[in-house]
Recover the amino acids of this structure.
């Protein structure tokens, strides 16, 4: 009951802010605010697999791309007939139906992609996931470049604008609540036990492969949703927005904020997105400095700014130096 | 039949280049149990060093296109790539294992170079920036900013990813993001043998790769350092207890693997002369797949894995879809992970507590 009221209140606040916000803070800041929201969803979801489950994915942009293109294609091709079906509803409700349909498709397809990538790679040590997801991110980009129906190398233009501050931040709240509830549940304890000591977790009866795949699929689904929200906000998608650099951005966010901390991921996403804008004049040096920062944080403060996880293992694993 | 033989030749020379890169992955994995993400960028670095050596005025004045000039470029790139590999190990991976002095000074020096360039755009400003960075780093270290001594495989993996991004981004800044064209350093001749066209580039690639692999086998199997390498990769802690200077052996392994990656960069650039700072990502991925296919940690396995990947790729392009050429190695990787994760020649090992 109380929780329901809280959600209602949040929705009302977001809905009240939405129509006035653009005028209040200006179109540029509004755009950055929305981008921060999309990045928060990406960071919090990547943190589920990288920070809480201890399996390192470096291809989050791949699932982000899958979601963005799935949602955009669904709405672009099926949208007109859905509008005919829902013609009796007001436009706002029609838009909402379309967006939710797109996001549902995005989450499902990105989740399936996560399943396909996760099952072969997560049966093994965590390192393999890194290289498989790196490959996946590149392959998805090549695939998109070769599919003409979604624009190929020209990019996908003409996507209806359906998402805005309200929808993005609604999903920010949903993502944070889901990940928070998940890691506080028995599933979350299984995730953390795998991260802290996979062999011990297995000895305690945790089906490690199942939980790793579950964590990875959920993480991919939210990346897909973030992609859908992004595409319906910018109205244009290009494969170049989803290179390994985009995955690197999300990794930087969660490493700065602290692996295994939801507040850290949120903070990292805000600091990084705003920082990238503020230091726009520095050009490519921003990325060099962020990479050096990533290396130095891992060497000197592996728990990041707010990380709960110190990366200290009580017992050294055999051979894993 | 003739096209098949032709494809076979192309695949073998392509594959031997992948094998050279795969050797570095497999050796580093052997000693540190780490996927060295920066390895693919060392390969890129090697290609660029070859490019700069071959385009230098000294080289242009004294060398033409001869066998000797090819050797000079190759050795120069190998030495420089091996130095980069050792630097990466010393200032990024070693601090992740044990507190090592000088780490902050090194990285702050690099940041200082960037800021110096931004502010002044002259060599003097860059030098001043480097100096200022080093001074700040040394002072911070004197104050007691020390790396965490605790090691974990995930921590080093993230450091490796960071180093890789650092090299790619700096490459775009220093070398320029646009593709460059690698000069023809060896004379082009086409031999026609029994209907097959063998150009001198492909033969050079194959010949150099074979010589380097034989050399590597001699070093690993018949020298004292090679024996120490095998000991470290068998059991690092036991090797240390036996009096082996493990840090030195690890540095040597990085140097050796990086030299091979540098050679791979030159050889691939002979066949495909377009080079750019992100050129390492896909060949690096394919070479890693080759290492996994052969059984990661196994040197002979990496050589065969490289050949198989090269052949599979060239055959697929020759007889099928060329747009999905890059996807082939990826599909092979997923298949090995599903069917036989230890690879063709790898030994299965159970992780123990």
């Amino acid at each position: 009951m109380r929780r329901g009221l809280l959600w209602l209140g949040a929705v009302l606040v977001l809905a009240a802010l939405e129509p006035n916000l653009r005028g209040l803070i200006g179109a540029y800041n509004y755009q950055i605010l929305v981008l921060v929201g999309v990045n928060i969803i990406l960071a919090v979801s990547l943190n589920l697999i990288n920070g809480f489950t201890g399996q390192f994915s470096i291809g989050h942009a791949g699932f982000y791309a899958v979601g963005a293109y799935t949602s955009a294609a669904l709405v672009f091709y099926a949208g007109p007939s859905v509008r005919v079906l829902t013609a009796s509803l007001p436009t706002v409700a029609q838009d909402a139906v379309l967006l939710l349909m797109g996001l549902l498709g995005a989450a499902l397809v990105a989740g399936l992609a996560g399943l396909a990538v996760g099952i072969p790679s997560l049966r093994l040590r965590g390192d393999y996931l890194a290289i498989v997801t790196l490959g996946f991110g590149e392959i998805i980009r090549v695939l998109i470049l070769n599919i003409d129906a979604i624009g190929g190398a020209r990019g996908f233009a003409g996507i209806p604008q359906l998402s805005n501050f309200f929808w993005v931040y609604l999903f920010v709240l949903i993502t944070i609540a889901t990940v928070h509830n998940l890691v506080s549940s028995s599933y979350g304890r299984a995730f953390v036990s795998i991260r802290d000591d996979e062999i011990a977790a297995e000895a305690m009866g945790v089906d490690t492969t199942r939980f790793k795949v579950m964590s990875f699929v959920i993480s991919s689904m939210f990346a897909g949703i973030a992609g859908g929200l992004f595409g319906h906000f910018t109205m244009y998608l290009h494969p170049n927005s989803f290179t390994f650099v985009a995955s690197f951005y999300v990794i930087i966010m969660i490493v700065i904020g602290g692996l295994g901390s939801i507040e850290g991921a949120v903070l990292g996403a805000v600091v990084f997105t705003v920082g990238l804008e503020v230091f726009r004049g520095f050009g490519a040096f921003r990325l060099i400095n962020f990479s050096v920062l990533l290396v130095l944080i891992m060497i000197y403060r592996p728990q990041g700014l707010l990380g709960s996880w110190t990366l200290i293992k009580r017992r050294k694993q055999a051979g894993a130096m | 039949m003739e096209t098949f033989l032709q494809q076979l030749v192309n695949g073998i020379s392509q594959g031997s280049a992948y094998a050279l890169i795969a050797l570095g992955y497999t050796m580093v994995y052997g000693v540190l149990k780490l996927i060295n993400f920066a390895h693919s960028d060392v390969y890129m670095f090697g290609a660029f060093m070859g490019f700069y050596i071959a385009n230098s005025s000294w080289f242009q004045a004294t060398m033409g296109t001869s066998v000797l000039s090819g050797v000079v470029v190759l050795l120069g790139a190998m030495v420089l790539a091996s130095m980069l590999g050792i630097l990466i190990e010393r200032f990024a991976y070693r601090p992740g294992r044990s507190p090592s002095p000088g780490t902050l000074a090194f990285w702050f020096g690099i940041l200082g170079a960037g800021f110096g360039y931004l502010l002044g755009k002259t060599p003097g400003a860059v030098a001043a920036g480097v100096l200022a960075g080093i001074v700040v780093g040394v002072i911070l270290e004197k104050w007691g900013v020390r790396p965490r001594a605790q090691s974990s495989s995930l921590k080093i993996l993230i450091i490796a990813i960071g180093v890789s991004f650092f090299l790619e981004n700096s490459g775009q800044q220093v070398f320029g993001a646009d593709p460059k064209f690698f000069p023809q350093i060896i004379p082009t001749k086409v031999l026609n043998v029994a209907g097959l066209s063998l150009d001198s580039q492909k033969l050079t690639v194959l010949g150099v790769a074979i010589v380097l692999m034989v050399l590597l086998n001699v070093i690993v199997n018949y020298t004292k350092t090679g024996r120490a390498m095998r000991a470290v990769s068998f059991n690092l802690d036991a090797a240390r207890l036996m009096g082996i200077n493990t840090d030195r052996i690890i540095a040597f392994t990085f140097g050796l693997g990086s030299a091979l990656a540098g050679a791979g960069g030159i050889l691939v650039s002979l066949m495909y002369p377009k080079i750019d700072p992100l050129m390492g990502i896909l060949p690096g991925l394919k070479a890693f797949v080759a290492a996994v296919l052969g059984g990661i940690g196994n040197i002979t396995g990496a050589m065969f894995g490289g050949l198989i990947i090269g052949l599979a790729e060239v055959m697929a392009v020759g007889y099928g879809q060329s747009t999905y050429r890059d996807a082939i190695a990826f599909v092979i990787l997923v298949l090995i992970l599903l069917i036989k994760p230890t690879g063709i020649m790898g030994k299965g090992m159970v992780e123990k507590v």
Notes: Chain A touches chain B through 56 residues (CB under 8 Å).
